Amino acid sequence: MNTLRADIDALIAGLPIAALVIGRDERIHSVNDKARALLGDNLLERHFITALRQPVVMDAIEACLRDHRTQTARYLGNDGAQDTTFDVHAAWVEFAGLSGVLVSFEDMTHVEQAGQMRRDFVANVSHELRTPLTALMGFIETLRGPAKGDAAATERFLGTMYAEATRMERLVRDLLALSRVESEERIRPQTDVDLAALVRSVIHLLRSVSDEAGVKIVEDIPDAVHISGDADQLRQVTTNLIENAVKYGGRGKTVHVTLTTLEYDPTLRRRAVTLAVRDEGAGIAATHIPRLTERFYRIDSHRSREMGGTGLGLAIVKHIVNRHRGRLRIESELGKGSEFRVILPQ
Ligand code: ADP
User: Fold this and answer.
1) pTM of the predicted model as reported, rounded to 2 decimal places
2) Phi, psi (5° rounding) for residue 335?
3) What was the pLDDT predicted at 185?
4) How confident is the model at residue 304 (pLDDT cuts 50, 70, 90)?
5) Which pLDDT band holds residue 79 (cuts at 50, 70, 90)?
6) Among candidates 238, 235, 231, 230, which has minimal Cα distance to 255?
7) Quick one: which atom of ligand 1 is closest to the CA of 301?
8) Domain span holding position 341
9) Are residues 122 and 230 part of one domain?
10) 23: Cβ contacts below 8 Å, ≥ 6 apart
């Protein structure tokens, strides 16, 4: 009997998931380490009801003990850091004269989380699209009804409608960019890109935007800096960072764009290029910094929307930087401004 127990112990110890065996006497005969980690120590010889207190799991085991048919249930736990979800299988086994229920726990936490993220994402996108859409419908109704034939109102409303439609267009464009970057994330870009020329051309293109915002852009960029990359995506990174610095930097302030090469970067452990975009705006509180690259995360949604932001810019930046095997660093001090640094391998 004891050697048989040892055999069963050895068998379930080899399983990659939490598992335990319950005998006909309804007591726990064998437990592996993963099950101990999930359910606690001192499970051996205990009645299963005292160890597995969740009713659906107990029902499944009871049913399996009764009619020897496989049962499934969900076990909901918490590992101290997060809620966890397990698919529980209770299967009747007969093994070298011993019989009982093999209970195994398949960790479904990451699947649940992915599902939740997808649901949140769809809810966010729907919400973001609905706001301008509702505004557009309101204006159309007004133009067909109360404001019909009023040339001045028509002109004014058309202007606002155009702005709302532009906002929707920008959101769809950013969503497509994000999905494209995500799908290519594992493919390392290999084209030779002169990052110095690219950054200069982005600054040149953004000149009218910064002039309009009353922000000065000061650049410190070497003649040429070559890296392997995807020029379109690097242009997008540069644009998003400088646009943000201009948007959140504030009128009358300066944005500093610096490109430097580093013989040896300790985190990338190789030669690297750093693109730094620094503003003199209100800065970002430390609690927000780790979340800025989440999709739709904004410190002040109203302000971001007012400035035509989609809340996706930094999420796109992060994915592109990852694809280039680089790092994004954000440093900020309230009242002093922020610095976004992209470090790319050279
Ligand atoms: P958005 O379209 O809202 O600008 P981003 O993903 O580019 O979206 O940025 C997310 C949020 O991070 C912004 O809403 C803003 O609150 C904050 N943020 C980004 N850049 C800066 C900056 N340079 N200074 C202060 N806050 C910033």
Assistant:
1) 0.80
2) 85, -15
3) 87
4) confident
5) confident
6) 238
7) 14
8) 190-346
9) no
10) 29, 98, 99, 100
Three-point CA angle 236, 240, 244, nearest 5°: 170
Tens-place pLDDT, residues 2-40: 677 788 889 899 999 999 999 999 999 999 999 999 999
Sign of CA dihedral 14, 20, 22, 28: positive
CB of 337 closer than 6 angstroms to any ligand 1 atom:
no
To which H or E segment does residue 233 belong?
A: helix 231-249
Ligand 1 probe mutation, 242, 278, 304, most atoms within 8 A of CB: 304
Structure tokens given for 6: 């040892």
CB atoms within 10 A of CB 150: 13
Whether residues 212 and 249 fall in one domain: yes
Query: Smallest Cα–Cα separation from 310: which of 60, 53, 93, 129?
Result: 129
Q: Do both 91 and 121 map to the same domain?
A: no
Residue 155 and residue 63 share a domain: no
> Looking at ligand 1, which atom is closest to the CA of residue 277?
23
